[in-house]
Here is the input.
Amino acid sequence: MKISEIPERGALVSILIPAYNAEKWITETINSALRQTWPRKEIIVVDDGSTDRTAAIAGNFLKDGVTVITQKNQGASAARNKAYAHSSGDFIQWLDADDLLTPGKISRQMEMAERISDPRILFSSEWGRFMYRARNSRFSRTRLWENLSSTEWLFRKLGENLFMPPQTWLVSRELTEIAGPWDEQLSLDDDGEYFSRVVIASKEIHFVPGATTFYRASGPGSLSDVDQSKRKLESLWLSLSLQIHRLQQLESSERTRAACVIFLENWLKFFYPWRLDIVEKAQQLAETLGGHLGIPRLRRKYAWIEKFGGRRAAARVEEFLPNLRSNLERFWDRTMFQFEQIGRA
Here is the structure.
């Protein structure tokens, strides 16, 4: 059944999909949106100047009522803002082009939204991490998987270095308007910065058990991978510092200041020794919060490399080996996925 043929009932949900060079995944992602059991939905894909077949593949779904918009490459945040500008939904479901929703995800959250009937309530959901086979997703419950106040949610997120992917949220249009647009100057952790604004604009966060999503671990070289590029590191620092500032606006206390220092400490290794200027800014910020940041320590099995090749060489090896392990896991999962696809053919 096409989207346009579904009887109108309940609030309209806009499923917004920014896409860039996602030809491998976009079909599965759009299908997961089309399979949503919530009857009133619109699906908008914005192709952000892809150089592969993403736009053409997305165009195959025009017959199903999916809207496809193309633009010159401007970044994921610009694509999200474009999708939102063309949307009409009472609620917004963000969905990256390689992630997936289970069929009842939106319905479960909307059922709770209709019972509560307060547009300032924000809804979150369960999520699992996968590479190629979503059914093998690894679910790791965290202390964000609860009903929480805005302050408590952000406090736990920073202090325990936790994460909620964009597709887990269901956001009312009112909350989306209050939070404002995605920051188009950010290229890394743009979602961390954006949803910190959504969270603080909300009255509270309601976690909806059974509303399940899948987050694809794209691996080294992806847009979300932290590397030594100037733009990514500057984007990451801006996002981190803004999130700290917002938590301090909500509650400036001994516990929140300590959480912010821990947050800085957890991320400092990505800047050292590549951006010593940012390291210095982080140390100064920690001091204003009553804490102290030393030089990030290498794990013991890599520390000896520093004596012979210097810190940069040791840091590269420390990054390389986990990436190698991840790539081997990805290769195995992709191979098994391909075998399964052949078996179904």
About this structure: Confidence is low (pLDDT under 50) at residues 1-7, 220-225.
